[in-house]
Specification:
This protein has an eight-stranded antiparallel β-sheet with strand order 1-2-3-4-5-6-7-8, with no helix packed on it. Helices cover 0% and strands 66% of the residues. It contains no helices and eight strands. It has one domain. With 125 residues, it is mostly beta strands. This is (apollo) hypothetical protein.
């Protein structure tokens, strides 16, 4: 199972780091990712106030050789709350010159404020 580590440093000295693991088994790729976006170390000038990161994310999914996929993602955003997203893609037609896919996702938000206690975002194409 290969592991991949990625890191980026921005002009404001904040960092994005992620760790991804994937495994291919019988032409099916399984993957999982954990990441921290906008991480700010305490010795930066000016010293950060509030949260020391923008978001923490974890995701897992599967991709088949036929082009079908499904994934789920959970994210925590300081001073906002949490989000959970589920997405899927189904390859309906794949020819030499044409390709038709059906995509759908839904996201449930759990704000940390008093009202509303949750709301949905969804789409399909």
């Amino acid at each position: 199972m290969p592991l991949e580590f990625n890191g980026t440093e921005h002009l404001d000295k904040s960092k994005d780091v992620s760790l991804t693991a994937s495994k291919v088994n019988d032409n099916v790729r399984l993957f999982g990712t954990a990441s921290i976006n906008g991480y700010k170390e305490n010795y930066n000038f000016p010293e950060p106030t509030g949260p020391t990161y923008n978001s923490i994310t974890g995701s897992a999914g599967v991709i088949t050789e036929a082009g079908h996929s499904a994934s789920v993602e959970a994210r925590h955003i300081p001073n906002f709350g949490n989000q959970v997203t589920a997405a899927t893609n189904i390859s309906v037609l794949k020819a030499d010159t044409h390709k038709v896919d059906v995509n759908a996702f839904t996201t449930k938000h759990f704000p940390s404020g008093p009202i509303p206690n949750f709301f949905y975002t969804w789409s399909w194409r």
